[in-house]
Amino acid sequence: MRAFALILLVLFPCLLWSQAVEPLIFREKTHDFGDILESNGNADHEFVFTNSSARPMTILSVNASCGCTTPGWSKQPVPSGKTGFIKASFDPRGRPGYFNKSLTILTDLDPNPIVLQIKGQVLTGEPLEADDFPVAVGKLLLQSKSFNMGTVFINRQPTEKKFPVMNGGTTPMRFLAVAKPDYVLVETPAVLKPREKGVIRIVFDGRAYGKFGFASDNLLIVTDDPEGDKKFISLYTTLQEYYPIPSLEEQAFAPQAILREQVVDLGQYRAGASIERDVRLVNKGKKELQIKALMGNCTCISAESKQKAIRPGDSTQIHISFKPQNREGTQQKAITVYTNDPWNPVQRISVQVYIDN
């Protein structure tokens, strides 16, 4: 009996390790199309994945949650370490407004399904009405409480978006000034007549910002609105580097980042404790792997690695530190790992801990 228990103690960490690494690593599991015109026809997106298992894998089925979405996928077995794709083709005809659809994938690697999501807003091309602007900042009407720029790449041209607005008042509204960060360009209408609609154009220069991860700023738009001349509006974006999908020739020599754990349970600790854990990052590619940034999604969690450049076949430890900072109960946080792996430049380590007071 003791011998059996000893075997379990030896095998249990290995079993946990094998469960922590996903067999298919996706660049993303959710894609936001943003605004799409109904008249433009189908909106298509390919979810690219890497087979991180030790053997070839086959996609058995891909089922869409709606008949409006047509799936496609790699039909041939995907060798270990190579890439495949899942394609989603969404038909917007007759479906105005917001949509959120899913694709459920089954493979011969794991009985657990993989779920991917696509979402966006279908526009009919018809003029916007007052009901399309549910957020009021004084008499300035917006479609949302904030301006979301989506993903911005720090190694590409600046990202531009236009956000519709409306003067909900009975007198003209003049736009007098804008206070903004240097890496953001904001263009407003000069004046909006009563009930007139216009757009605020925002250009975010990721190269000038120069940092990875989530970014939040406040824009100050000054008007002559009698119900509040100063209008503070939040601006959000997520920044990363852009890597094109490598060709078959390039795949043989590209770096490949494999996290030995993607889900980390730190266990239970008393309040005030400082909790630390190492997660191994392996370069399974044929070129040097570079760690560009390690970003926590909270001030309570951070990560660092002494080794920023990892040779082919080598590995390094990512050191994770969690400080409760008066938190209690179950905490679910994440570390985002940015590398030059062209298949998966952005990967996340999910971290869970229970703080007992």
Describe, in plain words, how this protein is organized in 3D.
This protein has 357 residues and is mainly beta. It folds into three domains: 104 residues, Immunoglobulin-like (Sandwich); 111 residues, Immunoglobulins (Immunoglobulin-like), CATH 2.60.40; 109 residues, Immunoglobulin-like, CATH 2.60.40. The strands form six sheets. The chain has a five-stranded antiparallel β-sheet, with no helix packed on it. A five-stranded mixed β-sheet has the order 11-18-17-13-15, with no helix packed on it. The protein has a five-stranded mixed β-sheet with strand order 20-27-26-22-24, with no helix packed on it. Strand 7 and strand 8 form a beta hairpin.
Could you outline the blueprint of secondary structure elements for this entry?
Blueprint: H1 2-20, E1 24-26, E2 30-37, E3 43-51, E4 59-64, E5 69-73, E6 83-90, E7 97-107, E8 114-123, E9 135-137, E10 140-142, E11 146-153, E12 159-167, E13 173-179, E14 184-187, E15 191-192, E16 197-204, H2 206-209, E17 213-223, E18 230-240, H3 248-251, E19 257-259, E20 263-270, E21 275-283, E22 289-296, E23 301-304, E24 309-310, E25 315-322, E26 329-339, E27 346-356
Parallel strand pairs: 2-8, 11-18, 20-27
Antiparallel strand pairs: 1-3, 3-6, 4-7, 5-6, 7-8, 9-10, 10-12, 12-16, 13-15, 13-17, 14-16, 17-18, 19-21, 21-25, 22-24, 22-26, 23-25, 26-27
